[in-house]
Amino acid sequence: MEQVLVHKGSYRNFTVNNQAFDLVKDYKEGKRGGFVTVRSNGRFGPEHDVVRIRVNGRDDIEKGEFDIQTESADTSNVVHESDEYVMERIRQRFDILDNMTRATINGDVRAMIVSGPPGVGKSYGIEKQLEMAGLFDTISAKEQKYEFVKGAMTPIGLYCKLFERRESNNVVVFDDCDSVLLDDLALNILKAALDSGKTRRIHWNADSHKLRSEDVPNTFEFRGSVIFVTNLKFENIRSKKLADHLEALQSRCHYLDLTLDTMRDKILRIRQIFREGDLFKDYSLSQERAEEIIDFMQDNKNRLREVSLRMALKIADLTKISDDWQMLARNTCMVNSR
Questions:
Q1: What is the pLDDT of residue 172?
Q2: Does 72 reside within a domain?
Q3: Cβ within 8 Å of residue 299, ≥6 positions away
Q4: Domain match, 227 and 111 both
Q5: Rounded to an integer, what distance in angstroms lies between the CA atom of residue 171 and that of residue 134?
Q6: Arithmetic mean of pLDDT over the chain
Q7: Most buried pick, 74, 206, 317, 318, via CB within 10 A?
């Protein structure tokens, strides 16, 4: 693998001076300046594998063969965030998600991509806003103007779904449909739907029995809104071809990264939802038992199969089965439990 020496740069609160890395992607200019994508080799902690190091320009990097070290980066000037600060930062991101979803419902935002790890409540917040907006339609038995689409999606299926939701004031949410991003044809259709131009016309330039049988035209104007929810962190994609497609998507619409990048972020997100009273609202748990569940996840975060809101609810389910719920959790929710 090609290597790069960073003469002067930074990653988050870490200073990076005269340190060598395995190069993942060459120097690039972004909205916030130049950066180079590298493999961290554990220098910023085990949770940060492929990272973007910010630099002022190409002169701050040098490609060649260097001695790759694995010691931790200089942390002498790192600003350590308190738990309360991190939870507030996370809460603000999800508040932004709520506001952007409402703007999408109103038609002020026509397309948005939301990126974040699984099980942190991305879809829940979006669905809650859509249900609130569609409450009158539910009461009056009118057809809902929004729809959640989950799972695998073929290009022709994507085209037909967009046709169904083509009218203004309609919102279609593609959740856990990352297979769309791996198909060139589906990606081109999605790019047309997310385009920022005044007119978004989508084409299907091939003969299709499905379109004929369902009376779907080969071209139509899309006036609806799209929210695409993904677990992928776009800047960590290594495939140049896919990265170029994803960059094209980002340029066409609003892109919100919830920035839950570390294990600590995920645990504190769970604590935040717990504090707000939404996490165990459907469970008859005492405050003490609920706190025990969160502390159990904190203590075993590196052994749990996943750290997520779903995992917290799985463990809460085990408290209904046995007082020795921790033993059950160790054997059903952990990797290589003994």
A1: 94
A2: no
A3: none
A4: yes
A5: 11
A6: 86
A7: 318
Distance CA 268, CA 308 (A): 10
List C-alpha distances in Å: 226 to 89, 108, 165, 307.
26, 12, 9, 28
Total count of residues recorded for the chain:
338
Of 202, 222, 257, the residue at which a domain comes to its end is 257
11-68 per-position pLDDT tens digit: 876 778 878 888 999 999 887 789 999 988 777 776 677 889 999 888 889 888 766 6
Domain identity same for 103 and 59: no
Q: What is the extent of the structural domain holding 218?
A: 83-257
Q: What is the pTM of this model?
A: 0.71
Closest CA to 217 of 198, 204, 234: 204
CB neighbours of residue 251 within 10 Å: 12
**Cα-based distances in Å from 20 to 6, 25, 51:** 6, 14, 13
State how beta strands 111-115 and 254-257 pair: parallel
| Tens digit of each residue's pLDDT (9 = 90 or more) over 65-114 | 766 655 444 444 444 578 888 899 899 999 999 999 999 998 899 999 99
Domains in the chain, number: 3
Residue 210 lies in a domain: yes
The confidence band for 294, taking pLDDT boundaries of 50, 70 and 90, is very high
Q: pLDDT tens across 239-251, in order?
A: 777 788 888 888 8
